[in-house]
Fold this sequence. Notes:
By secondary structure, the protein is α+β, with helices and mostly antiparallel strands.
Amino acid sequence: xxxxxxxxxxxxxxxxxxxxxxxxxxxxxxxxxxxxxxxxxxxxxxxxxxxxxxxxxxxxxxxxxxxxxxxxxxxxxxxxxxxxxxxxxxxxxxxxxxxxxxxxxxxxxxxxxxxxxxxxxxxxxxxxxxxxxxxxxxxxxxxxxx
Length: 146
């Protein structure tokens, strides 16, 4: 089976769905944050190993504790995965922290800060235009060009 085959893509999706359900509903470890989500899953073509990207809403401490809890519950998770999904081999799961959501939120805040600074600078210079009039002027310029 090729890495990007349709079958492998379907297996990745099914494993992701089942892993998220197991983590959310069945694991009772207090170290695992209730705001844990499975972002992506990549199962090897030979079905021997699996990499699961996990995102945790919270600080660095919550991420470390959740990763510890998931690693300690690895046997239970793998057994439940084997009972739920009928695969030739049940993959060995390796959990990886995914920081892309936190990175995106951080970048969004930085963009908002820069936009606010630009607005404050425009107010200080006295050449502030309200956003609607700027958009209207841009739209009128585009119509004139056509």
